[in-house]
Write a structure and sequence with these properties.
The protein is an alpha+beta fold and about 80 residues long. The chain has a domain at about 10-65. It is built from two helices and three strands; from the N terminus they run H-E-H-E-E. The longest helix has 12 residues, at about 10-20.
Length: about 80
């Protein structure tokens, strides 16, 4: 039996907007996520970004994949 669900809200919207903003395989994260992962990942600050349908601007970081060894390709297939 397979379950289906829908996630919605501010966090989901920010995640979608960061994915849309990312180019060339970049991984972008919000300041909230950056605070949690900063010990394990090199982060490049990109500054405040105004994201569509998000009331306040979000400080965005790019994960520096050239110096980060924790990132591995997903083994899952869509």
């Amino acid at each position: 039996e397979r379950w289906t669900y829908t996630a919605s809200g501010t966090v989901t919207n920010i995640a979608a907007r960061l994915c849309a903003l990312a180019t060339n395989g970049a991984i972008l994260v919000s300041d909230a996520v950056a605070e949690i992962i900063k010990a394990g990942y090199a982060l490049q600050p990109l500054g405040q970004q105004k994201l569509k349908n998000v009331s306040q601007s979000v400080f965005v970081f790019k994960i520096d994949q050239s110096t980060t060894t924790n990132i591995k390709p997903s083994k899952e297939q869509p």
